[in-house]
Inverse folding.
C-alpha cells in the first residue's frame, strides 16, 4: 500500500486493545445501559468492533460533523451534518471518536451533548495525538497515543479514502487524494 509510509499499529494490536477497552467499559457499566455516540464517519470501524467487545446493555447512535476535507489540518470550524436520532436525556453516553488532534471537534461535541442533560457523558477515542493543546481535554478511554503525524486506516481517511485499511499507517508524503 503506497499511501502509507509505515504501519503504526497492526491488526493484531488493534484487536487486542479494542478488546481491553470493551472489557473496561463492560466493568464500568455493569448492570447499567450505555449509548455509544459514534462520530461519523471516521469512528464507524472502531465503534463496530468496540460494541462487540462490550457485554452489557449497549445502544448506538450517530452524529456527523465536518471533516478536514482534502486538507490534513483542522479548519477549526465544526459543522453538524446529521444529528442524533434519539434523545440522550438521563442516559449514560460515551462519545466514540476515531482520533483527537487539536481537540476542537471534541470540545464542541461535549458542549453540545452536555446541554441535552445526559446522566453521564464520557469520551472514548481510538487514537490520541501527542501534541500541545490550547485547552485541557478530558478523555476517559484512549486506545493508543500516537505521534503528531497524519494517519489513515481503521476508519481514518485522507480525502475520504483509505478508511478500509485494517491497520493504522502514516500517510505517505507522496500520497494524493485518491480521486484526483
Ligand atoms: P480535531 O478537531 O483537530 O481534534 O480533529 C478531529 C478530527 O479530525 C477527527 O475526528 C478526524 O476526522 C480528523 N483527523 C485528525 N487527525 C487526523 C489524522 O491523522 N488522520 C485522519 N483524520 C484525522
Ligand atoms: Mg472524524
Amino acid at each position: 500500500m503506497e499511501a502509507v509510509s509505515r504501519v503504526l499499529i497492526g491488526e493484531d494490536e488493534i484487536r487486542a486493545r479494542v478488546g481491553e477497552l470493551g472489557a473496561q467499559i463492560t466493568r464500568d457499566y455493569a448492570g447499567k445501559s450505555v449509548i455509544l455516540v459514534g462520530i461519523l464517519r471516521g469512528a464507524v470501524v472502531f465503534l463496530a468492533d468496540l460494541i462487540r467487545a462490550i457485554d452489557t446493555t449497549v445502544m448506538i447512535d450517530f452524529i456527523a460533523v465536518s471533516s478536514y476535507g482534502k486538507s490534513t489540518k483542522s479548519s477549526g470550524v465544526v459543522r453538524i451534518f446529521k444529528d442524533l436520532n434519539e434523545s440522550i436525556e438521563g442516559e449514560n453516553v460515551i462519545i466514540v471518536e476515531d482520533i483527537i488532534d487539536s481537540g476542537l471537534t471534541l470540545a464542541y461535541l461535549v458542549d453540545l451533548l452536555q446541554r441535552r442533560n445526559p446522566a453521564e457523558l464520557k469520551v472514548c477515542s481510538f487514537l490520541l495525538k501527542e501534541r500541545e493543546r490550547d485547552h485541557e481535554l478530558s478523555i476517559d478511554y484512549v486506545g493508543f497515543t500516537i505521534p503528531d503525524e497524519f494517519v489513515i486506516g481503521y476508519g481514518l481517511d485522507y480525502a475520504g479514502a483509505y478508511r478500509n485499511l485494517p491497520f493504522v499507517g502514516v500517510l505517505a508524503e507522496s500520497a494524493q487524494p485518491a480521486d484526483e
User: Anything to note?
Assistant: The pocket of inosinic acid (ligand 1) is lined by residues 39, 42, 67-68, 74, 97-106, 150-152, 156-157 (CB under 6 Å).
